[in-house]
Structure formats: structure tokens, C-alpha cells
């Protein structure tokens, strides 16, 4: 009987056994590296659970993508391939059998000196040659070492599953982290990638084009972060946005408060929470007079020299992003290169989205990060308020709010005949230096003693819109 992965009773029973030599836990994700570093090159987790009897459970494991040049002309990318623990794991009376293209049998509770048939299909045996204690992710735990006649060396622990698997045929897989107890090297959360907080600033540029004399346009926008709310799988920012937007027909500037939501299930943003080697699709779908196709990627994880974590479309797969024909009713799809625009997709924990760019025939889009101010540090390039023509569009409503004295040295009063709301003071680089809320009152006194002598911009939210005023601080 197939059960939901989060079946409460079953998970409770399995979690209890997780501290007793279980090789897999349904609520854990196991992170492995194959190059001796802390870069996560492989991630193993359970996707489905089947029960075959009172003491028999079948786990379906996550899959990966793999190029298949020999599959041409029908297809060239297999998207349902097994990872090093195969596709299926069967647990019967403490015996773990991993099966797919190969079959491996492990007895994690067996005592030192025990032997058994490790690979039944090849009649290869093996046995436990060591039992000791080791420090795993900073925790002292019991471990056992198994060696097969085919020179496989496998180490597992009582609490953390398979710690390492070294094989002449499959290379080495060393566990570097564990989601669940959250130990070791972990894949960052959405909130870790987007680390902006109130007072920070971020700026992006987007462009769109259609070939053959068609549409070309774009926009540049700067967000001043006013608030941040973290949820389990998303982050919601309150921000003040400055927008420069252009096309062949016009060029406009605007600004105002916005809500910026970063969600893990967005077609593009879910790249951040996708396992290394997974096939990610669709990032976009197109139809022509002849066929339908989509853009997708195979995901790569790596640690940068700066220490930041990067998740990107793997450059080994045809310019990072690639096109493929629909529908996806086969475990193998046909990739093709359809664009003349460089195609890429990169997120990192320094700035969030670094770049997203694609070209499909004569149509293309790009969004790329240009700068930020994070905790007072400026990265890249941040446009001044003058670039966004701040103040021009607000002149008609500026007389509804009065700011005095101006220049000010210690305190400044914001007053109006209207009910006032939030207010923000930012410097010439767009960094928020002070903020607050008048709470519906018609006036509020603000101390400017703690900010340096300089020229600032004051934004005040009122029933008629956002009013922007120049403010000078002098001593």
C-alpha cells in the first residue's frame, strides 16, 4: 500500500528507529560530496513510501538527470536516472536492499565480523571489518566499516546513515551535511539566499526583445527594503521601489511602495531548493506553428571561493539552460540549442538572483543584478535618486506635507492637514538611514541627531500618495 510521505504514524516509527542504525530517514536529506570538498554534489532523500507487509517497507528515492549522446536521435537527456543508492530501497527485518541497475544488500545492525552476499547479481560478498566511535558533524557516534570483495568501502553510523561510500566503479561519496537535524554543510534556504534586511538596497535590470524589428524594452528598478517577514518557504519584503522603464514607444519613471515576495515554488526561484543533478522544468514554454518546446536546466551546487553558496544551471548541459520538446511523457527528452543569446541562471547567497538570461529563436529575456547595499556595504553599482528622476513626479502633491526646520540640526517636524503614515529617510545612495510611522497623526517629530551631516530624501506616505521632500542635516 502506497502511503503519503508525511504519514504521521509511519514517520514516528521510522524516526524512532533512525537512532538505531537506520540507513535512511524519511524526514532527512543526506548531502554528499564527490570531490573531497564541502560542495554538495549529490543529495539523497525519500520521495515515496510503500508498505508490503507488517515488517516490509519500500522507499522510492530521488533521481537525477544524465546526458545520453547514444540515445540520439530520439533523445539525449535522461531525466529519471538513479543516484548512487539506486532508485529503490527495500527494508525487511533490518536488512536494507538498494536496487535498480545494480543491487546492494546491507545489514547495518550486524556485529563485527559478520559477512553476507553484498551484490547478489554478481555473487560478490563482503563483511564488517570495523566497529568504533567517530565524530560525525561534531557529534560522537558509533560507526561500522564494511568492505566488499569488489573493493567497496562503506561506513555508516548509528544516527546519521551512510557516512561514506568509496567504490572503484562509482567513485567516492562522502556525507558533508544532513537536513533534519541540520548538521554539517546544508543547502541554504530561500531566506539565506535573499539576506536583505530593513535599510538594505538592491537593484536589478531587465531587458526583453523580439527579433525581426519587433519589440525591445526593459526596466531598471531599485528596492529600498523597509520590512522583512520570513516564512518556512518564502520571504516577504516591504519595499519602496524606484522604477525606470523603457520601450521603443516611451520612457517613464515611477516610484512607490511595493510588496516583494520570494517563493520557493516560483518556476524560476525553485532553482534554489532543487537538488544537485536534478532536472528543473519548465522555466518557460513556447509554441510555434510547428511544435511546442520549453526551457529547462540541470541544477549544479557549489561553494564559491568567497565562502558564498551558489546554485546554478549546470554549464555542462548545453549553455546552462537548454530547450527541449514537449510533452515530458518519457524518461528521456531531446535537448536542442534554439537561441543566439547566452543562456544562464545563477543564484548565490551574496545577492540572491545573480542572472537569468535566455534566448529562444528570435525572442529573449534577461534579468541581472547590478548592485546592492547590505549592512552598510556597497556591492556593485547603485544608481542615485537623480537617475530615477526622484522628485519630478511628486511635485504636484509635495505641498500637502511640510517639513521644518529644513535644514535641521537635531529635530525635524513632519506636518500635514492629512493623516500621515510610514516615513523613510534615505541617503544619496538610496540607503535607508531612518524610518518610522506617524500612525495616522497629522504631525510627527523626528530626531536626526544620529545621522551625519548630508543631504537626504524624506518619503512620507499620506492618503494622497507618497510625498518626497529634500532634507538637509547641518550642525
What helical percentage do the residues reach? under 10%
Distance between the termini: 77 Å
Mean pLDDT: 84
- Large-scale geometry: elongated
Q: Hey, roughly how much beta strand do the residues contain?
A: over 45%
* Low-confidence sequence ranges: 6-18, 391-398
Profile the largest sheet: 13 strands, antiparallel
Q: What structural class results from the helix and strand content?
A: mainly beta
What's the number of structural domains?
3
Please describe the structure with a list of short key phrases separated by commas or semicolons.
475 residues; mainly beta; Immunoglobulin-like; 3 domains; 13-stranded antiparallel beta sheet; 38 strands; 3% helix; 55% strand
What would you say this structure looks like, in words?
The protein is mainly β. The protein folds into three domains: 2-182, no CATH class; 187-382, no CATH class; 395-473, Immunoglobulin-like. Helix content is 3%, strand content 55%. It is built from two helices and 38 strands. The chain has helices spanning 8-17, 190-193, and strands at residues 2-3, 29-33, 42-44, 46-53, 56-61, 63-67, 77-82, 88-92, 95-99, 103-106, 115-119, 124-136, 139-148, 153-157, 161-167, 171-179, 183-184, 201-210, 216-230, 234-247, 251-263, 279-287, 292-303, 309-313, 321-325, 332-333, 335-336, 344-348, 352-360, 363-374, 377-380, 401-404, 411-416, 422-426, 432-437, 443-447, 454-462, 465-473. Strands 18, 19, 20, 21, 22, 23, 24, 25, 27, 28, 29, 30 and 31 form a 13-stranded antiparallel beta sheet that branches. Strands 2, 3, 11, 12, 13, 14, 15, 16 and 17 form a nine-stranded antiparallel beta sheet that branches. Strand 30 and strand 31 form a beta hairpin. The protein is elongated, with a radius of gyration of 28 Å. The termini are far apart.
Amino acid at each position: 500500500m502506497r502511503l503519503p510521505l508525511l504519514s504521521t504514524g509511519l514517520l514516528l516509527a521510522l524516526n524512532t528507529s533512525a537512532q538505531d542504525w537506520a540507513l535512511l530517514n524519511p524526514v532527512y536529506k543526506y548531502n554528499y560530496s564527490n570531490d573531497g570538498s564541502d560542495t554538495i554534489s549529490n543529495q539523497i532523500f525519500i520521495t515515496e513510501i510503500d508498505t508490503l507487509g507488517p515488517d516490509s517497507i519500500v522507499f522510492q528515492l530521488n533521481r537525477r538527470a544524465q546526458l545520453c549522446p547514444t540515445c540520439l536521435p530520439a533523445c539525449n537527456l535522461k531525466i529519471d536516472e538513479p543516484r548512487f543508492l539506486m532508485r529503490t530501497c527495500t527494508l525487511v527485518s533490518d536488512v536494507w536492499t538498494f536496487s535498480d541497475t545494480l543491487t546492494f544488500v546491507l545489514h547495518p545492525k550486524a556485529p563485527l565480523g559478520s559477512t553476507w552476499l553484498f551484490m547478489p547479481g554478481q555473487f560478490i560478498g563482503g563483511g564488517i571489518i570495523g566497529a568504533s566511535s567517530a565524530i560525525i558533524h561534531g557529534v560522537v557516534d558509533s560507526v561500522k566499516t564494511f568492505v566488499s570483495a569488489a573493493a567497496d568501502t562503506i561506513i555508516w553510523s548509528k544516527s546519521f546513515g551512510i557516512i561514506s561510500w568509496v567504490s572503484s566503479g562509482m567513485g567516492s561519496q562522502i556525507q558533508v551535511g544532513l537536513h533534519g537535524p541540520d548538521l554539517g554543510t546544508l543547502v541554504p534556504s530561500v531566506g539565506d539566499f535573499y539576506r536583505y534586511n530593513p535599510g538594505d538596497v538592491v537593484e536589478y535590470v531587465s531587458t526583453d526583445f523580439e527579433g525581426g524589428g519587433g519589440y525591445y524594452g526593459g526596466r531598471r528598478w531599485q528596492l529600498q527594503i523597509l520590512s522583512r517577514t520570513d516564512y518556512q518557504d518564502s520571504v516577504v519584503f516591504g519595499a519602496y521601489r524606484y522604477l525606470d522603464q523603457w520601450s521603443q514607444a516611451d520612457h517613464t519613471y515611477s516610484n512607490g511602495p511595493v510588496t516583494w515576495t520570494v517563493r520557493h515554488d516560483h518556476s524560476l526561484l525553485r532553482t534554489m531548493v532543487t537538488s544537485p543533478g536534478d532536472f528543473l522544468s519548465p522555466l518557460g514554454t513556447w509554441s510555434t506553428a510547428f511544435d511546442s518546446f520549453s526551457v529547462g536546466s540541470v541544477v549544479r551546487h557549489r561553494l564559491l571561493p568567497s565562502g558564498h553558496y551558489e546554485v546554478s544551471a549546470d554549464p555542462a548541459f548545453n549553455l546552462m539552460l537548454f530547450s527541449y520538446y514537449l510533452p515530458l511523457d518519457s524518461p528521456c527528452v531531446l535537448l536542442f540549442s534554439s537561441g543566439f543569446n547566452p543562456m544562464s541562471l545563477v543564484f548565490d547567497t551574496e545577492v540572491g538572483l545573480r542572472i537569468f538570461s535566455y534566448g529562444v529563436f528570435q525572442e529573449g529575456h534577461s534579468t541581472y543584478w547590478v548592485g546592492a547595499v547590505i549592512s552598510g556595504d556597497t556591492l556593485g553599482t547603485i544608481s542615485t535618486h537623480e537617475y530615477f528622476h526622484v522628485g519630478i513626479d511628486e511635485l504636484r502633491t509635495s505641498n500637502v506635507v511640510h517639513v521644518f526646520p529644513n535644514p535641521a540640526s537635531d529635530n525635524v517636524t513632519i506636518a500635514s492637514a492629512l493623516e500621515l503614515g510610514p516615513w523613510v529617510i534615505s541617503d544619496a545612495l538610496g540607503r535607508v538611514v531612518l524610518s518610522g510611522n506617524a500612525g495616522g497623526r497629522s504631525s510627527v517629530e523626528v530626531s536626526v541627531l544620529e545621522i551625519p551631516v548630508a543631504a537626504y530624501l524624506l518619503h512620507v506616505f499620506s492618503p494622497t500618495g507618497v510625498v518626497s521632500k529634500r532634507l538637509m542635516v547641518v550642525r
